[in-house]
UniProtKB/TrEMBL annotation:
It is a multi-pass membrane protein. This is Iron complex transport system permease protein. It is found in: Cell membrane. Keywords: Cell membrane, Membrane, Transmembrane, Transmembrane helix, Transport. One of its GO terms (biological process) is siderophore-iron import into cell.
Amino acid sequence: MVPNRAVASRASFPSRLLTTWLVAGFLLSLVVMASLLYGAGPVSPGDAFAALLGNGPDNAHFVVSELRGPRTMIGLVTGLALGLAGALLQSMTRNPLAEPGLLGVSAGSGFAVALAILFGASNATLTTFVAQLGALAGCALVIAATRVQGLGNDPVRLILAGATLSGLLLALTSMLMLMDQRAADEIRFWITGSIAGKPLTLLSSTLPAIAVGLLIIAMVARPLAAMALGEKAAVGLGHHPGRIRFLITLSVALLVGSATALAGPLIFVGLVVPFIARAFAGPDIRKTLWLCLPIGPAVVLGADVLSRLIAAPSELPLGVVTALIGAPVLLAIVRAGRMPSL
């Protein structure tokens, strides 16, 4: 009887995962609707809804189609990229606290973009490429840190090392702002994190890189799950850990670089999204990645909606709201006294 119950439990798990995915997708649809209907401006939710149906005043049409629509699309892509990147980093380092913003990956990308802005870069494709190079350098430093004896195996110490790197890069970014007042205003607005007022041309310049990142994830998901059993076990199953780490690093750089180019450095998104996904999917990275697809965009768009409403008629920077959401999650994980098994 016990084996039969175990088999039934295993058989029911995919259905539970599918149910969770559908619920997350439904919540995401609600957040998307809220993003289109609510804002800090004078357009009411009723007028915005009428504009979605083809009616309503002209200013509501403009706000929904030219401002909130592109903002919502950019938020969807940003949340997707950061959620998947966080799950990949945590699985690769076997550290549930690993997150692009905490480990310096986003800071490396942000510093690279600030440097490009200082030298007058305005082309969206160039900015995206520079952001990805900065993220790649940040990923390389993360991998190097995990190889340091006693550091990679201690999640809290690894986060402290990442915070040190992030602080250094932030200080360097501040120095760049002192060098050029014209660039300083643009850099200051950008590093706070925001998806407001971003053109769709910027989104189109990041989509090819994100598509490549998603393709790499599809390639490494199964080998990455095997690596959770240990590198020797993965080699025994015919996988190559070094090659897998390289592909993951490339995918994280593409995803984080694209997200940073779109919204600036947003911290904690890559921590919160996999944490929620693992709570329902368990330690299997493949199931976690599937759940990150709807949860990531929902977290970013939900935070963006809050940023519009908390201080209306003004708006809080999106990066501030994601920090307010993510900091308690980080403290909860650390204070729990145990780390989830990865």
